[in-house]
Sequence to fold (369 residues):
Amino acid sequence: MGLEEEIEEIEEEIAETPYNKSTEAHIGRLKSKLAQKKEKLEQQDSSGGGGGYAVEKHGDATVALVGFPSVGKSTLLNALTNADSETGAYEFTTLDVYPGMLKYNGANIQLLDVPGLIEGAASGKGDGQAVLSVVRTADLVVFMLDVFEIDQYQRLYEELYKNNVRVDQDPPRVSIRRKGKDGLSVTSSVDLDIDEGTVKEVLRDQGFINADVTVGEQVDLDRLIDGVMDNREYIPSIVAVNKADLIEPDYIETVNESLREHDIDPDEAVFISAEEQKGLESLKEEIWDALGLIRIYMDKPGRGVDYEEPVIVRRGDTVDDVCREIGGRFDERFRFARVSGASAKHDDQQVGRDHELADEDVLRIVAEK
Ligand SMILES: Nc1nc2c(ncn2[C@@H]2O[C@H](COP(=O)(O)OP(=O)(O)O)[C@@H](O)[C@H]2O)c(=O)[nH]1
Ligand SMILES: [Mg+2]
Fold:
């Protein structure tokens, strides 16, 4: 029996087994086995060459644009970036990955038009797996939906989920420490709904014989398995609703209702028209926010503050992270820094390496000569 059939068989068995306390451990093992077999299949597929999707990471962050054919991905990419992505009023115009660079707030944000997510699967062309590997490296997913087809969200979400991309989820708080003997022991900071025995079954199935497992949240079986497997990507997402130029104002409530049905807060979705270039500023802002990027203006000795080309780091980053970003081996030479702006108690506050910075801080690094 081939891997695919084995996977199918296990999926069928899971679907046919009613979930209750007495079957929980069994289902746990099945799901665990399923995860393993899928991983194996993925490795087989990706080792078979093909490639062609080796889009390198460039710039300060990478955003993957996913959506059905003809929702307007190429049009948007062309409107937002320097890219020249082929557009057309018919389907399947783009079967590769098209990168473009969006300049915003002094940052270089790489935008990837990833058409193959649905086209590849639907047409048999392209290589779904390879396309997915591009999405997996992204810092943010933008779901692009047609204003009349909000339900497309479901399919896109599932396609990503199937391929181990978890959008808008934090990694499960499951930690595993292997040890030399004494079998498996489970500790949990919450009163777990699933049995300890089930947790152990899942772990044993993934090859853990001696290990301490700590579960720090109420996990269901799928989250537990996610926590045990280390090939899941956790990526934030936003939703862009395109072709908003085609609707009348009184249709908006209908769209909002569809969004809510998919657990998308209408206030957080961005309505745009890629073609008429409307709503694009809001979209850029949302992308910026969701990426958690911040600008640091460097005060360079003798040259003043550089407001033109800020150093781009992430929310929560420290002076140390900026040093690493600009290079120049501050390891031994760093003495202290002076910071003005939102993170400082007062202008020119003297701070150390681990001071946490905020957007638009002005920073001067004082180093040994
Ligand atoms: N009315 C309208 N048409 C659009 C908009 N964006 C794209 N289109 C059209 O939709 C078609 C498909 O666009 P394209 O960018 O190729 O979609 P892709 O397959 O997702 O890359 C083209 O005919 C575009 O002109 C929009 O905001 N409003
Ligand atoms: Mg296209």
